[in-house]
């Protein structure tokens, strides 16, 4: 798969081989992954495998919005866009991804806090850096409002 993507902006996110020889290759891109690119990659991979030696089922798919981010390259692609982060303690944060590196992500979001002398909570802008070791999952977030 990687040999077929050399010279393109495609990259492998995950490869899984299930019992019964079900192979799933998940790819992403710095721009977009169209179905035609998945089909071409699937054909190239299939041509390099020998069905006569061992039968298999091959699926090539793009890393969609519902899939958690796995690679730093995916995080960097989403800088400036909204993400949904779930921390290991269960806290869910909807925020703008401001920065990402090998060990942490920086998020910007609005947090409601109680203010002394006020009946209602007030919103405060927060920019917080979280170590990746504290993050359970991060996904691209789409607001349908």
List the keywords.
3 helices; alpha+beta; five-stranded antiparallel β-sheet; 17% helix; 145 residues; 44% strand; three-stranded mixed β-sheet
Main β-sheet description: 5 strands, antiparallel
- What distance lies between the first and last C-alpha atoms, to the nearest angstrom? 38 Å
Strand order of the largest sheet: 7-6-5-4-8
Percent helix: 10-25%
H/E series = HEEHEHEEEEE
Q: Outline of this structure?
A:
This protein is α+β, with helices and mostly antiparallel strands and 145 residues long.
Word description of this protein:
Helix content is 17%, strand content 44%. The chain has three helices and eight strands, in the order αββαβαβββββ. β5 and β6 form a beta hairpin. The model has no long low-confidence stretch (mean pLDDT 92).
How are the SSEs placed, and which strands pair?
Elements: H1 2-5, E1 10-18, E2 22-29, H2 35-48, E3 57-62, H3 72-77, E4 82-87, E5 92-100, E6 104-113, E7 122-131, E8 135-140
Parallel strand pairs: 2-3
Antiparallel strand pairs: 1-2, 4-5, 4-8, 5-6, 6-7
């Amino acid at each position: 798969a990687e040999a077929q993507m050399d010279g393109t902006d495609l990259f492998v996110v995950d490869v899984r081989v299930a019992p019964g020889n079900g192979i799933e290759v998940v790819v992403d891109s710095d721009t977009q992954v169209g179905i035609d690119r998945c089909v071409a990659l699937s054909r190239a991979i299939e041509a390099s495998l020998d069905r006569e030696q061992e039968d298999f089922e091959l699926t090539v798919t793009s890393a969609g919005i519902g899939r958690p981010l796995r690679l730093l390259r995916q995080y960097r692609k989403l800088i400036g866009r909204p993400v949904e982060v779930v921390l290991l303690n269960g806290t869910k944060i909807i925020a703008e991804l401001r920065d990402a590196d090998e060990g942490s992500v920086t998020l910007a979001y609005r947090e409601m806090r109680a203010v002394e002398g006020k009946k209602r909570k007030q919103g405060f802008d927060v920019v917080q850096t979280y170590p990746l070791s504290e993050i359970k999952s991060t996904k691209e977030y789409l607001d349908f409002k």
